[in-house]
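Subject: Sanity check before I submit

Could someone independently write out the structure tokens for this chain? I want to compare against mine line by line before I put it in a report. The sequence has 707 residues.
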Amino acid sequence: MDATTIDPRRADVQDGRPPARSGLGANVLGAGFSLLATLIGLILLAWAILFVTKGRFLKPYFEQIASDQAKRSVKVAGDFQLYFDPITIKFRAEGLTIANPAWAERKNLFESKLIDTRIATAPLLFGRRRLNWLELAEGDLDFEWDQEGRRNTWTLGDPTRPGEAFEMPVIRRARVSGTRIRYRAPQMAFLADIKVETVRARDTQFENDIRFSGGGTSRGRPFTLSGSLMSPNETVAGGRNRLALHGAGAGNVLDVSGTLPGATEIEGADLKLRVRGPNMASLMQFLGATMPETRRYRMSANLTKQGESWRFTGLRGTFGDSDLAGAMTIAMPRNRLRIDADLRSRVLDILDAGPWIGYDPERLDRMGASGAIVHDGGRPRVLPDAPLDVAGLKRFDAHVDYRVTTVRMEKFPVSNIGLTLDLDRSLLKLSPLTFDVAGGHLASDILINARARPVHTEYDIRLSPTRMGLLLAKFGVEQSGTTGVVKARVQLRGDGDSVHESLANASGRMAFIMPAGTFWTRNVQLSELDIGTFVQKMFEKKLKNPVEVNCGLIAFTVRDGIAAADPILIDTRKNVIKGRGGFSFKTESLDLAIEADAKTFSLFSGQSPVGIGGYFAAPTIDPISGELVARAGVGLGLGVLVSPLAAIVAFVDPGDAESTRCGPVLSGARASAQREQSGDRVKKLGDGRSARPDAPKKERKKFLGIF
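---
Independent answer below. Compare away.
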């Protein structure tokens, strides 16, 4: 065979070279195209079969698969269709029912005469549910939580699985008729039953008007709800839906208006909220939260939804005679309600702050400041006894920052309140709670532990040096002649569900310290307890010179709600003032005896005790004590029997009181540490044990009507 007869296709083999790859690649590529064409063909065939048959033959498979996945019965009583039309998923079912778990009140979670939808295919591939169209006729939806608030009816699958938050699919356009939606949350004592209908709109700008109305109860209080959602023709092309909602309950009236991106698409909504009512606490109950009661309020805010959070921005309004502004966010992280707020008031009326600690807002609104006083068995009582809503605190968490510029009140100049509130599973912290008063600064930390019963409260209140001239100006103290200051520390802890109850069994210490300074009053004053001064001021209304204070301490040891002086000791240029007795948080009664020993000779000196009695809400002062009256009687008798000069002897004070060492006084030390300049212990001081039942019998006396 010559060269001309050699097969060119085998030449590369004969000369030892591998075959060309171009043919192999073409074969692989061709096979790939063939496979793809086959798949497309099969898809088109399946699409065609489904389109022609409307997928009716899938009905038993749908019921079986859906029931297995939901772990409950899913049935279609009538016609069933499931196919692509042309690329969106067409789903139609007549008489569709989805059963509820056995613990629910209603038999079915969902049932309807007809449900007809167009489901967007592309978003579904990425886990997003969007219905371009929904028609629902005579639907009945039952959303329930169990008694413990752990499981719900709409979380499908494992019946023991904890309930998840409901995620509404995005519905671009809808027509609904004869449909009811029921929501029940027994753990929140909440029930709502809403009817939804689509009404043909007369306004040609809108294709239809989805209207809803109904009501329910929240913690035993009925409410009503109504509104409409008007869907424009261009919704599918990216238009927006106009929402109007009106609700009323427990005297509260709520209106929401604005636009939604889709019929059920809240994300990015542009809404305006307006709400008003007699008490903001009753409004918060609808959310399952608790807050202090308020006087009548009116609020407005911009409302939108971002992720899982509802945001209230531009919040502005009033409660009582105070203003309120700021922002608030409500969310449900891990299926637990959480409220975050940043609020501020330019002016806070003191009456509006009263309900925060338990005063009745209706009494305050009707009676003013006197509404804080109630009478119990003929005794006036001022400490609030409204119980803390312990059950309410368990249902939510919160973080609130609140700032107040000015406080409107009659007696004390208070401003610049700053409050940080944290609530974490029934542990409530008001820390710090601060404000400026009379040029001084008060800082406090209050912890309320409601995780166990009884509720345990700890108070720690600190007052920086504050000018008494400003602090007590409304009580008759002259600012221009008063240089004295006062600083204080109160540390108490007690158990109980109200302020009164927690203080009624509290223990701890209270101390008010006065460094050197002057004190001057415009009206009758008893600080020196000098009878000559007292008589002079009763008629002349003023002193020629202010009282000069070297140091002073007014302190009490508190045991089981009884505060005993420990000590009351004020050293002035002229006198050493001492006090005994105390007061009771239980009965709010006062029983104090104050007396002054003169350092220098004085004809008219009140060596006898001045009594301070009555109650917190109605104190009494008795500067003419029984002992002093007896001395006056002796003086009168001597004057008649001997001579007028002898009558004065009964009022003469030899002036032998010794000055006090100010070190222990200014350190807030207890009575046992107080010393005279000579080093001797200061006598006749309340030592914090006056009210104790184990006091020596000869020293015991009836104290505060208890012992």
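---
OP: Matches mine. For the report I'm noting this point. DSSP finds 14 helices and 37 strands in the chain.
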